[in-house]
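[job 4471] stage=fold_predict status=RUNNING
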Amino acid sequence: MEPSNNGAKTTPESTPQRPVRPHPDSLLKPKHQWIPRSWPFWRNLILYFCLFSWVGHWMEIGYCTIMDSLFHIVDPNSGVWQSPLFPFPVYGCAVVVIALVMEPFRGHLIHRWAIRGKSKAVACWDFYWASVLLSMCMELAQGFIQNQPDENGVYPLWDNSQLPGNILGQAWIVNDLLLGALVSLMTWVVYPLCERTLGKVPDKVLNAALPVVLILFVACLVLFQ
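[job 4471] inference complete, writing structure tokens
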């Protein structure tokens, strides 16, 4: 007769172990969460500020050329027609906001919708409309501060008051929809790509490039204003 197993102690090796499933939150947290970083992060941010101040001016020249040809809304004396070497710091500030605010907000949306079983497309859609709202608020704020009409009703920077879809005479929904798309593109594609690209460049090279870029930036601000 075979010995009975009754009363025998069960060892850990003889007990089948059920796999432990990690909590969903540990699986669904986004890879790109904002964490205060060291010198390389802030150095890159300074470089982005300078470089995108130039790139933003070039983009605005193209955009205003198209809008003026279609709607005749851009003042011929507008600062946008200054030398292309003149940087527009407002666009550099926009990139800083993208890195410090919009990037972690993107991660928050990805995490939030992933927990609910939704794809990144849903998070991207929410992000786009939040960007449109943010662009509208910023356009209104800049307009109320810098673009008040004079006693003759002439706006110093832009005149959206006669356009269909204008918001309080300052913002224009077409601008805000396009800016929302641009912010989304910058946050989801351009900024991560820039980070990956600079991550392949040695720190010594970037540290040496920073003062050169800063000197050029200040020189262009002074010489081409």
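[job 4471] summary: The helical segments are 24-28, 39-71, 89-115, 120-146, 173-198, 203-223.
[job 4471] exit 0
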